[in-house]
């Protein structure tokens, strides 16, 4: 946990402790940035090593020597595997060509990149994380990414349930509850455009409203862009696996 978490706590501290936090803040900022830079550098070292060792198997004895140096740093197999996944996702975002994705690649922590890589096939999660960074100047945490994939969070990484009102039962009833049928916004026109769920409709509406994609002005255009992005990512994955 980063030391900066103390500044996010909604607690009434004493004046003396608040003065201490103010005095130490520049040093905590410097330490946090240095730690972030060091972890990103470790990712680049490990990721570059893993890719190079796979491409140049004829020089495996030399790469084994470097691997021993990595182990001497205390970087065990779990560390190497997670950083290699993060490096793969970092390159994927950088090669996308979208400035929002490139910004996400640079701002995301190694743990966030590794978590995004686990859900590489769900391109919309990366897009939503990039838009979250643009809106809030913060990258979603590993826990938020997991919550979004599981469906507990919406496309702004907010809980889907926290704003729902809870019914108050004044008395116990023996009657079976009546199911409340919610009106669906999916119209025949939507279904012709390929939208079959509220989630897909919500996603394309976000694409249309997104100010960084001014060329998307209609649902068919949004669906075409979304499908193209997903197919492109799938093709790149298949090509890299074959290589």
Keywords:
243 residues; mainly alpha; 10 helices
How many E-type strands?
A: 0
Model regions low in confidence, pLDDT < 50 over at least 5 residues: 165-182
Helix content percent band: 55-70%
Distance between the termini: 38 Å
Mean pLDDT over the full residue set = 80
H/E order of the elements? Answer: HHHHHHHHHH
Based on secondary structure, the structural category is mainly alpha
* Basic shape: flat
Radius of gyration, rounded?
23 Å
Main beta-sheet strand count, sense and barrel state:
none
Annotation field: number of helices: 10
- Strand percentage, roughly? under 5%
Protein architecture, described:
Helix 3 (about 75-95) crosses helix 5 and helix 4 crosses helix 6 (about 125-135). The protein starts with 14 loop residues before the first helix and ends with a helix. The chain is mainly α and about 240 residues long. Mean pLDDT is about 80; it is low at about 165-180. It has helices at about 15-55, 60-70, 75-95, 100-105, 110-120, 125-135, 140-150, 190, 200-210, 220-240. The chain has a domain at about 15-120.
